[in-house]
Write a structure and sequence with these properties.
By secondary structure, this protein is mostly helical. The chain has a domain at 88-176. It has 18 helices and no strands. It has helices at residues 6-20, 24-62, 66-82, 85-111, 122-126, 135-142, 146-169, 179-225, 230-251, 262-285, 296-299, 302-305, 307-320, 326-378, 388-392, 397-403, 406-472, 477-494. Helix 3 (66-82) runs parallel beside helix 8 (179-225).
């Protein structure tokens, strides 16, 4: 209870009004809109640049020989993208062989789809010798009738095994190529490896956490029946701290939040929110002298995930003889925003990997289309003694087009169109993907900035709201006079 102060009330109201005018989200939305406009401008510029380069290339071709204007540029461009035409042909043959194997496997799978047996991965199957299968698969096969056992065993041990051996022997089409494709592939593999490493790190921690939670749940159940079993709860709770300490030691950090892993941040935020909500539920449900509520098991985890908050609450509990709920509510909101940031980080990281792969694909498509154009010029058709490339190599390109027969013209025009298409449409697509990939990094940075702003807005906004509530409260003079008059009447009635 406190006396009302008009000056304090006015200051609090002014502070609230000023804070409401900040419109922090509006600034974030403006920045996001600016990034979207910048990306759109960059993408449009790449289209215009590619069109200009195509027109310039075509104009230059008309003033050169067929060799200088088309044949040599095709070979140089293929070498720039893939390392050489021979490497590209080898990669294409590998891709065709793998596609054929994949199609044959799909047909075989349809034929045994009626049998309730899982198809093992190539990694698991190749760990066993021919004539044997992974144990889990063998158990499933043993439940089939005699005919089914023979059919499925032959399918897995022969057809699937042969497919896996062949797939392992064939290198991925991109891995043998050099040039720009190799550069893009190395970047894609680095992006993918980083993403997968973070997933695996978070998954390993999650497994240890789940084991600790299961032991804690069991210990809490025993404590509900026998309060003397409390040491078991303490021992189980320590496993959470052990898991955190292990990860911090591996990463060389003091605070678990310093680990740069959005998947770990996502999991920790979810568990912190869960423990906070369980704590609030336990506080509101628990009756002195009664049984612990079911939410108490997950609430215990809060001491490990949010130790500072617990320490502050212990001080408040000592001073006020009751826990302060408001800090827990604020902490829940704070970690809800952390979860939002982690989710956006994961989405951006996955988009970066996806766009890195798209760049490799479009570069491979460019090189393949250029190789197709080169093949069109080098092929001999209708029994011709020499190819179009050899026949018209040293003639001016315009003269070659005017003197060639209809079939030769078709070859020249088709090769030229493919070459110009790679210089225009596909080259623009490649560089637009580069800008989109860069935009993924910007989107991730802006997401963290937005969440950070929201966290400050939540913290300051709640403080100002409490200040306004406090400033507008208190006993006013007229209320005090009314109270005194009431007390006087009460005293008179009692003849005090």
């Amino acid at each position: 209870m406190h006396l009302y102060s008009a000056a304090r009330d006015q200051q609090a109201t002014a502070a609230k009004a000023a804070f409401d005018k900040l419109e922090l989200q509006k600034d974030i939305d403006t920045e996001r809109g600016n990034l979207d406009k910048l990306l759109a401008a960059e993408l449009g510029m790449q289209d215009r640049l590619a069109q200009g380069y195509r027109d310039f290339t075509l104009r230059a071709m008309l003033d050169k020989t067929t060799k200088a204007g088309l044949i040599d540029p095709l070979d140089k461009r293929i070498t720039f993208l893939a390392g050489s035409a021979d490497l590209l042909r080898e990669a294409q043959n590998t891709a065709v062989a793998q596609e054929g194997a994949d199609n044959a496997l799909a047909i075989l799978k349809e034929q045994i789809a009626r049998y309730p047996v899982d198809t093992p991965s190539c990694d698991d199957l190749l760990k066993t010798e021919r004539g044997t299968l992974p144990q889990s698969i063998s158990i499933q096969i043993s439940k089939l009738d005699v005919v089914g056992q023979r059919v499925v065993t032959d399918f897995l041990d022969k057809s699937i095994r042969d497919y896996c051996v062949g797939t392992k022997a064939r290198a991925e089409p991109y891995t043998t190529l050099k040039g720009q494709i190799q550069t893009a592939r190395v970047r894609y593999e680095s992006d993918l490896a980083d993403l997968n490493a973070k997933k695996q790190e978070a998954q390993a921690f999650k497994q240890e956490f789940d084991v600790a939670q299961a032991e804690l749940d069991k210990s809490m159940a025993k404590t509900l029946a026998n309060p003397e079993a409390l040491p078991g709860v303490q021992a189980a709770a320590k496993k959470f701290q052990d898991a955190l300490d292990k990860l911090k030691a591996i990463k060389g950090v003091v605070n678990i939040d310093q680990v740069n892993n959005p998947f770990l941040a996502q999991f920790l935020a979810e568990k912190r929110i869960e423990s906070l909500e369980s704590f609030l539920s336990a506080v509101t449900e628990y009756q002195l002298g009664g049984e612990l509520p079911a939410s108490a098991s997950k609430a215990v985890v809060i001491s490990t995930l949010l130790p500072q908050l617990v320490d502050q609450s212990k001080i408040a509990l000592t001073q006020a003889n009751k826990p302060l709920v408001t800090p827990y509510v604020l902490a829940r909101n704070y970690h809800q925003l952390n979860l939002e940031a982690a989710n956006r980080d994961i989405a951006a990281s996955e988009a970066i990997v996806r766009h890195s792969k798209d760049i490799v694909d479009v570069l491979y498509l460019q090189a393949s289309q250029l190789l197709l154009a080169q093949n069109e010029l080098n092929v001999k058709v209708n029994g011709a003694p020499i190819s179009v490339a050899a026949k018209y190599a040293n003639r001016p390109f315009m003269r070659a087009l005017s003197t060639a027969n209809s079939k030769e013209k078709q070859q020249l025009y088709s090769a030229t169109a493919r070459y110009l298409d790679t210089a225009n449409r596909l080259d623009a697509k490649r560089y637009k993907l580069e800008y989109v990939r860069i935009a993924d990094f910007h989107a991730r940075s802006l997401a963290y900035a937005e969440v950070n702003t929201k966290q400050w807005e939540s913290l300051i906004g709640n403080s100002i709201a409490q200040l306004q509530e406090f400033g507008g409260g208190g006993w006013k003079p007229e209320q005090a006079v009314g109270l005194l008059n009431t007390l006087m009447l009460f005293w008179i009635g009692l003849r005090v």
